Amino acid sequence: MGEIKLTDVKKSFGALAVLKDIDLHIKDGEFVVFVGPSGCGKSTLLRTIAGLEKVSGGEIQIDGKRVNEVTAADRGLAMVFQSYALYPHMSVRQNLAFGLENSNMPKAEITERINEAARMLEIEAYMDRRPGQLSGGQRQRVAIGRAIVRRPTAFLLDEPLSNLDAELRVSTRAELAALHGRLGSTMIYVTHDQVEAMTLAHRIVVMRAGQIEQVGTPLELYNEPANRFVAGFIGAPH
Ligand code: ADP
Ligand code: MG
């Protein structure tokens, strides 16, 4: 579970080709980080994996099934966006429960999942507050919690820490790494922060203008960047 395979994936918006022949095989439990300049197609790629955008060509398979042939719930994916997208009129607890309550899940299980996520993310103290009463870092943890309660086989995270200040970014990054260790889910993570990429990733995918420029472990990219562009992104002297 949690294996994602992209074959010749293309995506255009009208005449604008945003993704061009993306080929990538993400293994179950792998932490893959996408980096690349603004506008290179990172968010679009995540959205196509999530099934929020249809591909214009090629295909995406999740655990051997084509993305567009399984329902959203069966895909086992949960997405965390850069803007937290919490419901402002609901408490933290209600935000976490939302989505689970629409399923047929027993109440006891919903409560258990929420409590578990709250413990993991250390947000127990403000479960009855509304998002407006929380700091940016707290809100982002709630957004991550909302993904955790769904127990996805893969998390799709689009610049989840970019709205946090430097100190919180570092601590939340460490929490995310610990979380990955505990859950063992596949993580697909977009960032423009090299340090995040280098510390979190099993493999880094460097994108440029809708294409994959290079894929490798942080060490491989650091030691053997394919070109100046990759070196520039990874921060290696070249
Ligand atoms: P990134 O996340 O790497 O910054 P995006 O995937 O958001 O890049 O965007 C890639 C390109 O696709 C940009 O040129 C953007 O303007 C364009 N784009 C993204 N979504 C749409 C859309 N729904 N309609 C038209 N163009 C889009
Ligand atoms: Mg983006």
TrEMBL record:
Residues 4-234 form the ABC transporter domain. Keywords: ATP-binding, Cell inner membrane, Cell membrane, Membrane, Nucleotide-binding, Transport. It comes from the Bacteria. It is found in: Cell inner membrane. It is a peripheral membrane protein. GO terms for cellular component: ATP-binding cassette (ABC) transporter complex, substrate-binding subunit-containing; maltose transport complex. GO terms for molecular function: ABC-type maltose transporter activity; ATP binding; ATP hydrolysis activity. Belongs to the ABC transporter superfamily. This is sn-glycerol-3-phosphate ABC transporter ATP-binding protein UgpC. The gene is ugpC.
